[in-house]
């Protein structure tokens, strides 16, 4: 209204001056009225009719973070600048891999849009890269999902634009020959198209994407591992991981929330081959946007995320603790890396979950030492440690892969379940016994630092070198007796039987 | 220089039985028929006898060229024939950056520049068919494409960073006596974009279904194809004025028969 009054004032003062003014006033008034109408909520039948007003540079985020929700903002011209980088990264401790990435991470940067946005997409192929790339966004309506218009040589940038017509969570990926290889090397990510007005607000939002990887060496084999096309064709993955590497969402990298908060996970699956059975241990999804679309299913335990597909899951966290995110095709989680953590802090609620109430002894007849089925041949690690420092380094890697889950990061163990290795009298008393435990497993009651434990440790599938390294690491950490264990000592114990 | 002369001598000795005049720094390639991964009709193509440069063109050789033909100097090259990154690793018209080695392959050159370079030497750029024909050899076999080791070596290069900074001649020569077709830089070819790759690789698969029949006929596996796929992909992504960090070239020549 202010503008209008201003114009009236101008009119009054200049009335006598010119006859053209009323005409201008009329024009201004009409424009003003139209402006008013635009402020009211206009419902467009078709998303392509939604007008865009301003330009905006899109906020892009690395996983597990997502950009700010669109909220009530109007449709805009959204400029997305995505840089492709081919770079070496770490798949897991000691294992290197050359990733091809959108924006320097696997999965690529998260793009957040709303229905009606006009996305101007700049695909930049870094000059150091060796290969041409392109991008197929499943959110695009058009040939190849943009792939055809975005095929870009190293040192060049391609620009194309598209309008977001359908709300949902969509995968994007590279589609340059050989397509499978580009995806297998990490070229995928998620683009979210929010409905008008945005998704309902929640407390925490995270970005998680699963992918399977195929390396020339077996899982855990050290060094720079090249991509293995034959394994990819055979769909025999060495690694199945969340966010590009083993441990991207565990330990210090775990995602967090507080009791009472609602968590929304944007879950994607880049593939190239495997379908994910996404599950959070100890939680039930209150809501799942099935396959990332409009349909909402409630009270879901495990949701299927197809390769090249996505889902939005939401749940309120009611009790504190660490909740494990897995692909419930469970060997992938515990043996190939598809494992993440959500750490929830806050007050216990024993009405919902009591915690352990009692620990009674239950001994059925004929317990035996559990052993994992293995072949007798355990592959020697290719590069034996040459020095104490290397023994410590490799030993730590083995520890983190094999022992960490039970004995914990600082060797503290878990009370009443897994004995500590830190300052452990049981460990330090007898080195041959310790070697034997790693080689053959241990079951039954033992006393460690005055506490009784009655549990089962399975025999470990480690080579003599690895046993020597991991025990050297354990003995030289956390206040233990600083013994150095050699391969010869391990062989001696091994050959005693 | 001494070693190069020695190499040349060796090459000459090896090929002395051949009754063709051997050009300096080139080796004789005996033509034949073969099935390329992509062909015009994905059928057998014929390659006539020709000679090929043993090494890709180096920085210092290119320096000589731009000294002699100033129109190809960094500041003088026509924008029609080069893009902004032309000789991006050069300080000025006649000096490359300190990080560059004289004996590394020249890169950041456009197709126009490469073509003119060859023509100024009385040579030409190889065709895709010629290039692929020589490049399918390994150290012992003329057609090594079915060997897993051959493909693995090529693919290892894709993962090796900054290989363009290496000197020429470090990769073993193939059975023809040619070095560095794989493992150093991509190379321009005369008809680099004659295979129509649209940028939508999956569509290309449909369009060119012959390709798969053709390659199936030579018992091709994915293992065999995927190294080559990437070469065709990179060619398809190029335009003649483009320059790239990992893209150089070498020349070939039709053979002169001695009567």
TrEMBL record, chain A:
Which positions in this protein are listed as binding Cu cation 1?
133, 174, 182, 187, 328
Provide the reaction this enzyme catalyses: nitric oxide + Fe(III)-[cytochrome c] + H2O = Fe(II)-[cytochrome c] + nitrite + 2 H(+)
**Any idea which UniProt keywords this protein has?**
Copper, Heme, Iron, Metal-binding, Oxidoreductase, Repeat
- Tell whether Repeat is among the UniProt keywords: yes
Name the enzyme's class.
oxidoreductase
UniProt xrefs under Pfam families: Cu-oxidase_3 (PF07732), Cytochrom_C (PF00034)
Any one GO MF annotation of this record:
heme binding
**Does the record bear Repeat in its keywords?**
yes
Per UniProt, where does Cu cation 2 bind? 138, 173
Cofactor(s) for this protein? Cu(2+); Cu(+)
> What EC number(s) does this enzyme carry?
1.7.2.1
In what residue span(s) does the Cytochrome c domain sit? Answer: 390-478
InterPro entries with a match to the protein in the record: Cu-oxidase-like_N (IPR011707), Cupredoxin (IPR008972), Cyt_c-like_dom (IPR009056), Cyt_c-like_dom_sf (IPR036909), Cytochrome_c-type_DH (IPR051459), NO2-reductase_Cu (IPR001287)
Q: Which NCBIfam families match?
A: Cu_nitrite_red
Q: How does it assemble?
A: Homotrimer.
- Which family, according to the similarity comment? Belongs to the multicopper oxidase family.
Name listed for the protein in its UniProt record: Copper-containing nitrite reductase
Source organism:
Bizionia echini
From TrEMBL, chain B:
Domain Sulfatase-modifying factor enzyme-like positions: 43-253
User: Looking at the keywords, is Ribonucleoprotein present?
Assistant: no
Q: Which Pfam families match?
A: FGE-sulfatase (PF03781)
Q: Which UniProt keywords apply?
A: Signal
Q: Is-annotated flag, keyword rRNA-binding?
A: no
Tell me the leader sequence span. Answer: 1-21
One annotated GO molecular function is: formylglycine-generating oxidase activity
**Which domain of life does this protein belong to?**
Bacteria
TM region positions = none
Matches recorded under Gene3D superfamilies: paralog of FGE (formylglycine-generating enzyme)
Q: What is this protein called?
A: Formylglycine-generating enzyme, required for sulfatase activity, contains SUMF1/FGE domain
Which source organism? Bizionia echini
């Amino acid at each position: 209204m202010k503008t209008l009054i201003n114009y009236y004032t101008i009119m009054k003062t200049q009335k006598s001056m010119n006859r053209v003014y009323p005409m201008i006033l009329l024009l201004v008034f009409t424009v003003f009225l139209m402006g008013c109408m635009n402020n009211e909520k206009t419902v467009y039948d078709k998303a392509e009719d939604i007008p865009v007003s301003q330009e905006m540079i899109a906020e892009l985020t690395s996983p597990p973070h997502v950009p700010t929700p669109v909220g009530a903002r109007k449709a805009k011209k959204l400029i997305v600048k995505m840089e492709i980088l081919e770079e070496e990264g770490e798949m897991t401790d000691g294992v290197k891999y050359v990733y091809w990435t959108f924006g320097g991470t696997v999965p690529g940067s998260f793009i957040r849009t709303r229905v009606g946005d006009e996305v101007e997409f700049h695909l930049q192929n870094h000059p150091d890269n060796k290969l041409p790339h392109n991008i197929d966004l499943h959110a695009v309506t058009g040939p190849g999902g943009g792939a055809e218009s975005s095929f870009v040589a190293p040192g060049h940038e391609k620009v194309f634009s598209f309008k977001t017509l359908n709300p949902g969570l969509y995968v994007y990926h590279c589609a340059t020959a050989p397509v499978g290889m580009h995806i297998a090397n990490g070229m995928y990510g998620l683009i979210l198209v929010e409905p008008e007005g945005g998704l309902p607000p929640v407390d925490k939002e995270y970005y998680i994407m699963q992918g399977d990887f195929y390396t020339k060496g077996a899982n855990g084999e050290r060094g720079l591992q090249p991509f293995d096309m034959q394994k990819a064709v055979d769909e025999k993955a060495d690694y199945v991981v969340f966010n590009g590497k083993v441990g991207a969402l565990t330990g210090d990298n775990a995602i967090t929330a507080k009791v009472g908060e609602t968590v929304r996970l944007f879950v994607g699956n880049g593939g190239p081959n495997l379908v994910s059975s996404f599950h959070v241990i100890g939680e039930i999804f209150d809501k799942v946007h099935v396959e990332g679309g409009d349909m909402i299913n409630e009270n879901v335990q495990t949701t299927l995320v197809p390769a090249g597909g996505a889902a939005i899951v939401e749940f309120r966290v009611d009790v504190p603790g660490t909740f494990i995110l897995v692909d419930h095709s469970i060997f992938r989680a515990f043996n190939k890396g598809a494992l993440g953590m959500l750490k929830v802090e806050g007050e216990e609620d024993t009405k919902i979950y009591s915690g352990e109430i009692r620990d009674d002894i239950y001994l059925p007849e004929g317990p035996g030492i559990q052993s994992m089925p293995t072949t007798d041949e355990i592959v020697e690690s290719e590069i034996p440690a040459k020095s104490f420092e290397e023994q410590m380094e490799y030993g730590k890697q083995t520890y983190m892969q094999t022992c960490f889950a039970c004995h914990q990061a600082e060797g503290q163990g878990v009370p009443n379940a897994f004995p500590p290795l830190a300052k452990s009298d049981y460990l330090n008393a007898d080195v041959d016994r310790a070697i034997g435990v790693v080689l053959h497993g241990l079951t039954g009651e033992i006393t460690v630092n005055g506490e009784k434990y009655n549990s089962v440790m399975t025999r470990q599938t480690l080579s003599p070198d690895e046993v020597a390294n991991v025990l050297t690491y354990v003995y030289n950490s956390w206040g233990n007796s600083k013994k150095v264990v050699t391969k010869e000592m391990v062989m001696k114990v091994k050959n005693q039987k | 220089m001494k070693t190069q002369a020695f190499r040349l001598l060796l090459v000459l000795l090896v090929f002395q039985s051949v009754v063709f005049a051997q050009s300096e720094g080139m080796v004789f390639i005996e033509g034949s028929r073969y099935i390329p991964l992509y062909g015009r009709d994905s059928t057998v193509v014929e390659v006539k006898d020709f000679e090929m440069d043993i090494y890709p063109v180096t920085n210092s050789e290119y320096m000589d060229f731009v000294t002699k033909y100033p129109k190809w100097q960094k500041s003088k090259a026509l924008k029609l024939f080069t893009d902004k990154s032309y000789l991006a690793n050069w300080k000025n018209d006649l000096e490359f950056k300190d990080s560059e080695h004289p004996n590394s392959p020249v890169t950041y050159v456009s197709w126009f520049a490469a073509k003119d370079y060859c023509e100024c030497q009385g040579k030409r750029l190889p065709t895709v068919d010629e290039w692929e024909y020589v490049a399918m050899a390994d150290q012992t076999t003329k057609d090594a494409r079915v060997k897993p080791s051959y493909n693995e070596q090529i693919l290892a290069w894709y993962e090796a960073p900054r290989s363009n900074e290496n000197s020429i001649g470090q990769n073993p020569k193939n059975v023809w006596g040619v070095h560095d077709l794989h493992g150093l830089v991509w190379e321009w070819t005369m008809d680099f974009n004659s295979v129509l790759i649209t940028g939508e690789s999956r569509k290309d698969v449909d369009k060119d279904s012959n390709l798969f029949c053709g390659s199936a006929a030579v018992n091709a596996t994915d293992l065999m194809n995927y190294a080559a796929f990437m070469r065709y992909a990179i060619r398809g992504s190029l335009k003649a004025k483009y320059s790239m960090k990992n893209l150089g070239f070498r020349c070939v020549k039709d053979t002169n028969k001695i009567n």
